[in-house]
């Protein structure tokens, strides 16, 4: 004990300096540990938040038919748009829901809020409804498949077999995302033409729906005879062809006979419907009129005109 006292008395300064250094080192270590613990906690919280963001519309972003799943960058944006639109429809908030529609969709299908209300909101969302949606395809167009059910909470009946459905396409319009609804997918400008023997056929545009396509066609007859665009003796003489060589027939029975007559020196624009169901990733490449009657009165000469793009 005396030796320790003597040692302490002889080295008091050095001992306290050592103690101070040790305390300082321990404090620094604790400080670093606290910083590290805080940083780890922040990373854990960030990870939890990211996980919540990733799973908010996780199921809805898994593509059913073709293409990649909706990307991490856009799935929440798309999901929120779908949720907001469908919620407005359920609540019959017509004006708010109508504002989500694209310009094309309004012009072609719902030119006014009243039409939209009666032909869409009241038709699909009458009564107490709920809904689900999921990515259908994500190749050229982003299309969601929607199911509209009776709300079990209000009806007390769980019935998921009986439902109404829709296909909704997300499009970008003036840097905003808008919707094409009721199975209307997109409009494709064509503006291509072909002329043969004083007959010119111009394909103006294609309106693509889930179950069919509508082609706007302008026919110019520069001859001195009335022509008939198709004799309708067969069903496969007016068709469109895709990039894989598959053909799809026109539903000419939906056109009046007068639609197919172009008088001498005249021009007319008609709409022809084709039976092809929407196929994600498949492009149409040409349209063919293979049974044009060059003289409607004589039925003596026939012509084929194909227009490609």
Q: How would you sum up the global shape?
A: elongated
* DSSP helical segment count: 7
DSSP strand count = 15
Largest sheet entry: 5 strands, mixed
Unreliable runs: none
Question: How much of the polypeptide forms β-strand, as a percent range?
Answer: 25-35%
Spatial separation of the terminal alpha carbons = 105 Å
Which strand order do you get reading across the main beta sheet?
Answer: 1-2-3-4-5
User: Helix/strand/pairing class, anyone?
Assistant: alpha+beta
Radius of gyration based on Cα positions: 34 Å
Order of helices and strands: HHEHHHHEEHEEEEEEEEEEEE
Please identify the oligomeric state.
Answer: single chain
| Mean of pLDDT | 87
Share of residues in helices = 25-40%
Question: Would you kindly provide a written description of the structure presented here, covering whatever features stand out?
Answer:
There is one protein chain. With 309 residues, this protein is of the alpha+beta class. Helices cover 31% and strands 34% of the residues. The strands form four sheets. A five-stranded mixed beta sheet has the order 1-2-3-4-5. It has a four-stranded antiparallel beta sheet with strand order 6-7-8-13, with no helix packed on it. Strands 11-10-14-15 form a four-stranded antiparallel beta sheet, with no helix packed on it. A hairpin with a 4-residue loop joins strand 10 (238-242) and strand 11 (247-249).
How are the SSEs placed, and which strands pair?
Blueprint: H1 2-10, H2 12-56, E1 66-67, H3 75-90, H4 94-98, H5 103-108, H6 113-124, E2 129-138, E3 142-150, H7 152-155, E4 164-173, E5 176-180, E6 184-196, E7 199-209, E8 213-221, E9 227-228, E10 238-242, E11 247-249, E12 261-262, E13 267-274, E14 284-293, E15 302-308
Parallel strand pairs: 1-2
Antiparallel strand pairs: 2-3, 3-4, 4-5, 6-7, 7-8, 8-13, 9-12, 10-11, 10-14, 14-15
